[in-house]
Prior knowledge:
alpha+beta; globular; binds 2-(butylsulfanyl)adenosine
Amino acid sequence: MSQSSILIPFSRAGDLKIQLTEHNHRYYVLDAPQVPDVEYDRLLRELQALEQQFPELKSSDSPTQRIGAPPLEGFGSVSHEIPMLSLDNAFNSDEMREFDRRVHERLKQSSDIEYACEPKLDGLAVSLLYRDGLLVRGATRGDGQKGENITQNVRTIGSIPLRLSGAGYPSVLEVRGEIYMPKAGFDKLNQNQRDKGEKVFVNPRNAAAGSLRQLDSRITATRPLEMCAYSTGWIEGDNSEQALPDTHTSRLQRLADWGFLINAEMAAVPNIEACLDYFDRLGKKRDALGYDIDGIVFKVNSHALQQQLGFVSRAPRWAIAHKFPAQEEITELLDVEFQVGRTGAVTPVARLQAVFVGGVTVSNATLHNRDEIARLGVKLGDSVIVRRAGDVIPQVVSVVLDKRPADAADIIYPLLCPVCESPVETLAGETVARCTGGLICGAQRKEAIKHFASRKALDVDGLGDKLVEQLVDEKLIAAVADLYSLELNQIVALDRMGIKSAENLLQALNVSKNTSLAKFIYALGIREVGEATARSLAKYFGNLPAITAADQESLKKVDDVGPIVAHFIFDFFQQPHNLEAVAGLQEAGVNWPDIEVAEENLPLEGLSYVVTGTFSQIKRADAKVQLQNLGAKVAGSVSAKTHCVIAGPAAGAKLTKAQELGVDIIDEDALLVLLRSHGVSL
Length: 682
Ligand code: IVH
């Protein structure tokens, strides 16, 4: 090949590398992609083809290197030039103030000390070495002195620059940070694992660790890992003196200029009290972040002061990790009870040795269904790891097999309903076992009444779960319609019930009689008919007789109603006892106005919204319901018909799609403004 004919592929390859590196940085670090994924893939394939044809074009900083390399026999060892330290922990404000006092004392300084605050990411520490701007080595922390060489693996992580951007970096630059798996990526990975019948990961940290320690980096390349830089390590050679400013926060800013992802929540605060405020603020935001954190790291912001303070054994004196209450704890599975829900679903509930986790004492956790018990391989008497994050219900995430006692016993699923002793059956293709007793079953009856009275249904103020249970147990009511024939003396006779509360309850029952068709349908508790479907049914058919008489074909014409839901609705109205219950309620005075009149002028009628990402001020499910209440349709995917996408942090493919299609995008604040402007009180 002549010198001149290779020049064209050379310059095209150079051009592609620049473009791909830029797209990669925009996608993984700035979270602001400029081109659709298909365009990126096209450019990458073009570069791969050129490199295959002209191997001399290959270089270690080529974006093609991110797809992984052939498997290694084992990881080599790396000695850290500067040890990778750990952090001391504080578990409350007093320990934080004590840390600040020690810092003042050592520095002999009485004025406020400025601190840098950063979330403590729950992943794995990594060291990245750059020589003349080129990534030459990636290593785990190991024991702090020696780690494992994971260069091939770190190359596959999109937010790690293969070559530093900008200028002015030291010729030897070690960057340290955390490799972690964002929550959305973790959920997707586990879903894929489940679909393939492979092992699911217990939490994002384990998934990150398992993904990073792959001898086959092509597997790492498929895992959604990110790396966030939080410090520098070894620095030498050109620019080593002047490249980095004095404060930690401005140093990290410099790392961002060179292409690294740094944490968006990072802040400098003037003193320890402001650190405590930051801790509270981030604690409230914790569940809405797109990644797991287990605390906040506070660092004396001035590097000069950091150097004066130095280290003790394995931790610096200038930093501390203020930990949140643990979200995972180990405890013992004492027993499993089976609860029967409104639709007869029999759910195994773990009775646990009480344990403090996620800020509350937990003694019960759902085990979901038979498949979940099999997946966990859990037995009675096992030590289990329980996780409670935010307001999510506690979960048993895994079993500590090392601690299994010799007499651990299998969990036996009941053949008969524990409440009414009707047979329990599991239909083909379903994972849920159900009691076949229907409304004969006291548990199903109680749940049906609770649902009927709940806020989104007929909203009977003051009729809580405990009261429903008492009313059923005392045989004062057996079905929903009986609520409306309750008398004052019957209610007053109940435990802890005063005359005033009893009068209020009767009054609330009276008020609840005036409802809407949509709420009434929802209140009936038909399987799979949630608020949105009930609203669609009411809107489509306009009146109850039309719904009760509809066949499955006409039901399927309604928004959100597929064949399965159509079958449930049809089936419900075929059952004489359900029709009797409906008639009984109407006789008792339950009524609603003509639907068309009420729904015609809804402000967001005809507009389609998509809600994606995480929100901090409103639950995503509530946002959807509020939009639907205003007449909007809330869809699960973005299309050209979408009117607007509401995107919180950690929004992924849906946001990208909206950007591609030029659909309007608003954030959570704008959503709240929109809802409030239509009179929604939040
Ligand atoms: S600074 C000498 N900053 O926490 C300072 N560490 O318990 C060392 N970590 O091994 C670390 N987020 O893996 C620092 N923003 C952050 C961090 C962070 C997570 C991890 C890190 C370290 C461990 C110490």
